Amino acid sequence: MTRRSYKKGDWLFICDRSGEEHYASKGRMEWNGLFVYKDYYEERQPQDFVRGVKDKQSVPITRPETEPVFITNPITWDDL
Predict the structure, then answer these.
(1) What pTM does this model have?
(2) Is the peptide bond before 74 cis (omega within 30 degrees of 0)?
(3) How many other CB atoms are found less than 10 A from the CB of residue 27?
(4) DSSP letters of 43-70?
(5) Are 29 and 35 in contact (CB under 8 A)?
(6) pLDDT single digits (tens) 52-74
(7) Which residue from 40, 55, 58, 74 lies 20 to 30 Å from 9 (Cα-Cα)?
(8) How many CA atoms lie within 13 A of 28 on its CB side?
(9) Residue 19 in 3-state DSSP?
């Protein structure tokens, strides 16, 4: 650990990302609660704020399902 000079109203902290010791005036709080040195600061990803658009899944025209037609054995040309 290196010896630091006194700065009135400032204190030392350990960077949560690098583990290095710095003055608090050079640190920044990230969105995820980490207090890091200014060179290691990362902005929050803008894609975190994107909202999805609801997709309409229904079809415009619907028809009821018809009853199936079964062909009996033996099959003749009239059945086709």
Answers:
(1) 0.59
(2) yes
(3) 19
(4) PPPGGGG--PPPP----S---PPPPP-P
(5) yes
(6) 999 888 888 888 888 888 777 77
(7) 40
(8) 9
(9) coil
* Strand pairing class (35-37; 12-14): unpaired
Local confidence pLDDT in tens for the 80 residues of the chain: 566 788 889 999 999 999 999 999 999 999 999 999 999 999 999 999 999 999 888 888 888 888 888 777 777 777 67
Taken as a whole, the chain contains a residue count of: 80
> What CA–CA distance (Å, rounded) separates 61 from 29?
55
The candidate with the shortest Cα–Cα distance to 18, out of 4, 35, 30, 6, is 35
Distance CA 68, CA 55 (A): 33
